[in-house]
Design brief:
Oligomer: single chain
Radius of gyration: 30 Å
CATH architecture of the largest domain: 2-Layer Sandwich
Number of domains: 3
CATH superfamily of the largest domain: PAS domain
CATH class of the largest domain: Alpha Beta
Distance between the termini: 67 Å
Strand content: 15-25%
Structural class: alpha+beta
């Protein structure tokens, strides 16, 4: 009767989001015994550095691995029996509510609760969540990536809930975004100042001002290339397709890199037999790829030698050819498109992967 009263009491708890009902002490103890047995699987879970919890149908912990115990300085999973993830992690929002984790107005926007509820509906879910916690009297903000996987055992439904601290990843993304924003603002200011100089200064200084303007444009392009690469690494790159003329593209590259320092005492030419082909692609990305290959080709030759560029149609595809004297050693050819392989100084060069 006591367990039934307890269940009824929890059913009547107030909630603003997820159900507030909790399992009775007897039910929790029975679930704990299902997992609290020596097992190779549990030993493997204890060896995993990621926090892993097994939750019952009411989102309450019935088992956890050693990573969870270490995080909150507990000794046994039984010490956390019946608690929900937010209560275990000392989430400030759930401690302010009588019904606990998942039931407050804040919980509507919590990725952890949303993923657990999806799992209880039989769907695997992964999401990011931000939790404000109080540990040892100090307030901290946690960025977590959580995975919730439905799991049936002994005719009961559970959720395997795993969470990983990703605050370094999140912080890096924020700082990177701020860096690019601020540096492009600074470049805009410098470009404006150079334009004022161009208008107001005498003709004798115009050549120097033109050089300054080209250097600013080159710096802006280098920064944009880095931002593009960072976005590609994170699978956040947006492709912008448009119609391109291969001859116009190569001509712009020729004009750009003929005045580049790497082309000093060297020659960059377009082959007469180069075909003009219309095609669809992302011109910005393609220009950066071809531009880097051209720079590499110029760096690899001796003074007074030549790099030639051209395009041609081949089996309904377009080919860009960038040629210089010499050839790559076989060991370089075999590793050319591997991540981080580069023949440059270790402080520069990302490779061609």
């Amino acid at each position: 009767m006591r367990n039934q009263d307890t269940a009824l009491e929890h059913q009547s708890m107030e909630t603003f989001f997820a159900p507030a009902q909790k399992s009775s002490a007897t039910e929790l103890e029975q679930d704990l015994q299902l997992f609290n047995r020596p097992s190779p699987i549990l030993a493997i879970l204890d060896a995993v550095p990621m926090m892993i919890m097994v939750l019952n149908s009411n989102r309450q912990l019935v088992y956890c691995n050693q990573a969870v115990l270490r995080f909150i300085s507990a000794q046994e999973p039984s010490q956390l029996l019946g608690l929900r993830p937010g209560e275990i992690l000392h989430c400030r929002n759930c401690t302010d509510a009588g019904s606990g984790c998942g039931t407050t107005e804040f919980c509507r926007h919590c990725g952890a609760v949303q993923s657990i509820l999806e799992s209880l509906d039989g769907r695997f879910s992964v999401s990011d969540c931000r939790i404000s916690v109080t540990i040892g009297g100090h307030s901290e903000s946690m960025d977590l990536r959580v995975w919730a996987t439905p799991f049936s055992y002994q005719q009961k439904s559970f959720t395997i809930f795993a969470c990983l601290d990703i605050h370094h990843e999140k912080r890096h993304a924020v700082l990177e975004r701020l860096f690019f924003h601020d540096i492009f603002n600074t470049l805009g200011g410098l470009s404006g100042a150079v334009e004022v100089l161009r208008i107001s200064c005498p003709d004798s200084t115009q050549n120097t001002i033109s050089i300054m303007n080209r250097l600013l444009m080159r710096l802006a392009d280098d920064i944009e290339s880095h931002r593009t690469l960072a976005a590609a690494e994170k699978n956040d790159l947006t492709i912008r397709r448009n119609r391109i003329s291969s001859q116009d593209l190569l001509q712009r590259l020729l004009e750009t890199y003929s005045t580049h320092p790497v082309c000093k005492n060297r020659e960059l030419v377009m082959m007469k037999e180069s075909q003009n082909i219309q095609f669809i692609s992302d011109e910005g990305l393609l220009s950066r790829v071809l531009g880097n290959i051209i720079k590499n080709a110029l760096e690899a030759i001796q003074p007074k030698e030549t790099v030639s560029i051209s395009s041609r149609l081949c089996d309904q595809s377009i080919q860009f050819l960038i040629h210089n004297p010499g050839f790559m050693p076989r060991e370089v050819q075999l590793q050319l498109f591997q991540r981080s392989f580069s023949t440059k100084d270790p402080r520069r060069g990302l490779g061609a992967y």
